[in-house]
Design a protein that fits this description.
Layout: H1 5-16, H2 18-25, E1 33-35, H3 39-46, E2 51-53, H4 57-61, E3 67-70, H5 77-87, E4 91-94, H6 97-114, E5 118-119, H7 130-137, E6 143-149, H8 152-164, H9 168-178, H10 186-189, H11 192-206, E7 216-217, H12 225-233, E8 236-247, E9 250-261, E10 273-280, E11 284-291, H13 295-312, E12 343-353, H14 358-368, E13 373-378, E14 391-398, E15 401-402, H15 403-414, E16 424-428
Parallel strand pairs: 1-2, 3-4, 4-5, 7-9, 9-16
Antiparallel strand pairs: 6-8, 6-10, 8-9, 10-11, 12-14, 12-15, 12-16, 13-14
Helix pairs in contact: 1-13, 5-6, 6-11, 8-9, 14-15
């Protein structure tokens, strides 16, 4: 259902690698029907021998079809079609992270009740098999945290801002020209796409329901070129990270720009590539890297799911790997923590009047809030844009503290008459 970029890649890879896939799956996997509104284009892709229809309900009504691949996307008709496919007793393979992040609990419950599989490896990080790694490969581990670059568009923009010293708006236009960013890039640049993906990973890692509405989501639109430059001077790179972290009180679930030490492998992931770091208590740190989008990389994950469903098609549903790794009756009710409860460290940039005593007042406020300082960088007046004779940039790195304490300290610092602009706050993740 839907034969756009990913659907075309899936059809082509399945056709090209059919002998290899059959050897692995134990039987052939044959596309017999394609539903797409543009039937003429669909026919030009699949050729003769495959029925092409413009109504996806025809796929669901066909009793000879075992597996439905949903590649339409979005929350609307895709949800109706997936639920109808489950009701019809058909297995579903989908790349739809938005649908699963918002409605996954309902969808997985329906699939379990009907004894069918909903497979979704392609929904997170494209061709990187991160779902299988979390759900099966790391099943012995207590997952401590996950941190991922899981949106290629934003990573391309941040890489270009760093390497060329350009501002966000200029690089966004270039990303759109090159096809890395959509005409409406909101879901990418505001962090929503990454939020959907980290929500799905958190559910698998911790055995909790998918709860996108409780995730903290912040994009990259407010990042300035000078912050990327200052971070570099301090030994860090700025990446948009999706983070899920287990704490005794609950789960941190957040997406936001983060300073990451330059020496970390994930800090050196450039361009439109994706990478996910998973910390397990037994295995330690593991890194998964590769193409997070594109026709054939995503098709790779779709077909891996097809092979899994083909192998498990006749298995007792109770013996299959659970959708979210944990048995449905053993899900946890650990709460998602609010952002004010999150514990992390910070990068702060203050544009201040170049006067004696300013630094002492700022550090005094931090000390009163019990926030310790890791490093301070003060740029000379001639390195600052604007009225360089009377202004300077003060950059502070802190140690870990609770976000609520930092919010209170920032409000006090912002109120100082010597602080001339809104304070920039970027969270810092050591990923140690």
């Amino acid at each position: 259902m839907g034969i756009g970029v990913v659907g075309t890649g899936t059809f082509n890879v399945l056709k090209r690698n059919q002998p290899e896939i059959q050897r692995r799956a134990g039987r052939g996997i044959e596309i017999t029907m394609v539903a797409d509104l543009d039937t003429e284009r669909a026919r030009s892709i699949v050729g003769a021998g495959v029925a092409v229809v413009n109504d996806a309900h025809a796929v669901l009504a066909n009793p000879d079809i075992d597996i439905v691949i949903e590649l339409i996307g979005g929350y609307g008709i895709a949800k109706t079609l997936v639920m109808d496919a489950i009701a019809a007793g058909k297995h579903v393979v989908t790349a739809n992270k938005a649908l699963l992040a918002v409605h996954g609990t309902e969808i997985f419950a329906a699939a379990s009740a009907k004894g069918v599989i909903v497979a979704f490896e392609a929904a997170v990080a494209g061709g990187i098999p991160i779902i299988k790694a979390l759900r099966e490969g790391l099943t012995a581990n207590r997952i401590e945290w996950i941190a991922g670059i899981i949106n290629g568009t934003t990573n391309f923009i941040l890489s270009e801002m760093r390497s060329k010293g350009l501002d966000f708006a200029d690089v966004l236009k270039e990303a759109q020209r090159l096809g890395y960013a959509e005409a409406d890039p909101t879901f990418d640049i505001e962090g929503v796409d990454a939020g959907h993906k980290v929500t799905i990973m958190s559910a698998i890692a911790y055995g909790i329901p998918v709860q996108f509405e409780k995730a903290y989501v912040e994009g990259i639109t407010k990042l300035a070129a000078q912050d990327i430059r200052y971070a570099e001077q301090l030994g860090y790179r700025i990446k948009l990270l999706g983070i899920a972290k287990r704490r005794s009180e609950g789960i941190e679930l957040r997406v936001h720009p983060s300073l990451v030490p330059s020496k970390r492998l994930i800090a050196n992931v450039e361009g439109a590539m994706n990478a996910v770091v998973v910390q397990g208590d037994a295995v330690g740190t593991t890194l998964y890297y590769g193409k997070g989008a594109g026709s054939e990389p995503t098709a790779s994950a779709v077909i891996a799911d097809l092979v899994d469903v083909t192998r498990l098609h006749t298995a007792d549903p109770a013996q299959r790997v659970p959708h979210l790794a944990f048995q449905p009756d053993a899900m946890s009710d650990l709460p998602i923590l609010s952002m004010s409860q999150v514990v992390t460290s910070y990068y702060l940039r203050l544009r201040v009047a170049d006067q004696a005593g300013v630094l002492a007042k700022v550090t005094g406020i931090l000390a009163e809030a019990d926030i310790s300082i890791d490093a301070v960088l003060q740029r000379e007046a001639d390195e600052v844009d604007g009225d360089s004779a009377s202004q300077t940039d003060l950059i502070i790195l802190t140690h870990d503290c609770q976000e609520a304490r930092m919010d209170a300290a920032l409000a006090r610092m912002q109120a100082l008459p010597t602080v001339l602009q809104n304070i920039v706050r970027i969270r810092k993740e050591e990923l140690a």
